[in-house]
Amino acid sequence: MTQRPYIVGNWKMNGSRAMLAEARAIDRAAQRYPDVEIALAPPFPFVGPLREAVTAIGVGGQDCHTATKGAHTGDVSAPMLADIGADFVILGHSERRRDHGEKDALVRAKAEAALAAGLGVIICVGETLDERDAGKAEAVVDRQVKGSVPPGESAAVAAGRLAVAYEPVWAIGTGRVAAVEDVIAMHAAVRARLVAIFGEEADKVRILYGGSVNGENAAGLLGAEGVGGALVGGASLTTDAFLPIVAAASQPAD
Predict the structure, then answer these.
(1) 102, 138, 153, 167: which one is catalytic?
(2) Global pTM exceeds 0.85
(3) Bridge-partner residues for 6, per DSSP?
(4) According to a count of CB atoms within 10 Å of the terminal CB, is the N or C end of the chain lower?
(5) Positive or negative CA dihedral for 141, 123, 166, 234?
(6) Nearest alpha-carbon partner for 205 in 146, 122, 147, 143
(7) pLDDT 10s digit of each residue in the chain, 254 long?
(8) Within 119-215, where are the H helices?
């Protein structure tokens, strides 16, 4: 894989204007890691202000609607995100699937809308603990990738605008981390499905790992075969916690 490692911070429903100082510090530090692509996804009210505050890192949203406009109170469209300076959007996160009942077909429709608006897209997939314990992890994730990734977006793939984040649901925010061998196996399963969808172009799709990534475990996870970066939750909220992950991505794998 020729792309730079992709380290994305998902602030979830956290943040304030005061936290823009953290983003500026991360932005300044990014200049020390030109071999790593770094981005932050704050809550929607802070996407525009964060875009204005930084220059070296990417800025994204955490969700978008399938429609470009209309009577959808409380929703945000992909063109709106693009208009205020977003580079990408995270879609299908397990918390969206759990809290809002989002299914693969809806995630795919949102991804199509985001790509049409010129945004990059990170599509999240991952199994629950019950599904893993039942031996269904790879089947569940394969189904999610097949159902959530738009199959006709080869142009976006070629431009590097599509990524998939494997996030075992049971590891998100729990402090638990998947064993490296399991991460390798799951990323290989995702890659196989992407190859089935896009053929040789699939190697341009980065597969990120997410699930309690921090400065202590980042090197082992990012050095695992097939891992093209990380989608980071809580550890992305402060410069001190986030930068060690970026630094780990900057180190060549053994």
Answers:
(1) 167
(2) yes
(3) 37, 229
(4) C
(5) negative
(6) 122
(7) 468 999 999 999 999 999 999 999 999 999 999 999 999 999 999 999 999 999 999 999 999 999 999 999 999 999 999 999 999 999 999 999 999 999 999 999 999 999 999 999 999 999 999 999 999 999 999 999 999 999 887 777 877 899 999 999 988 877 777 899 999 999 999 999 999 999 989 999 999 999 889 999 999 999 999 999 999 999 999 999 999 999 999 965 44
(8) 129-133, 137-148, 154-158, 180-198
Tokens of 51: 């875009």
List phi, psi (to 5°) of 40: -130, 140
Contact present, 178 and 168 (Cβ < 8 Å): yes
Three-point CA angle 154, 86, 212, nearest 5°: 85
- DSSP code of 65? B
The verdict on whether 167 is a catalytic residue reads yes
